[in-house]
Design a protein that fits this description.
Number of domains: 1
Order of helices and strands: EHEEHEHHH
Distance between the termini: 42 Å
Oligomer: single chain
Helix content: 25-40%
Number of strands: 4
Amino acid sequence: MPGSYCNLLYHLVFSTKERRPLISSEMKPRLQDYIGGIVRGEEGELLEINAVADHAHLLVRLHPAQAVADMLRLIKGNSSKWVNETFRRGPTFAWQQGYAAFTVSQSQVPRILAYIRGQEEHHQKRDFRRELVALLRRNGIAFEERYLL
């Protein structure tokens, strides 16, 4: 086959350091736009993003040459630096070291989009830790609770 055809979709989840509620309503839209710029700069596509006070969910389509771990390193490192330079007041902003990444079938994109868009309502019923445990179990990922984000 002369060409390469890829649709590499990922649901990415990562939290602020120590799950501190550092993402303010003032910061949120600008942070989300900035993260979108990082993804586009790496020839990816940000299909959806929703950050709540202590974590973020993204649905991204990555370029075939872009490794998930490298993309997350760029997103988290560059956005932390930008937040600290742009919003100088308050505690230092940082993302937690780890992350969760789930592959997504094209047929499941509408469901994942709705899930990411509904984060505010979702977290009125379930905190981030319980949400993450449910996502890991649903995706068959082994984990030790003491090492969760």
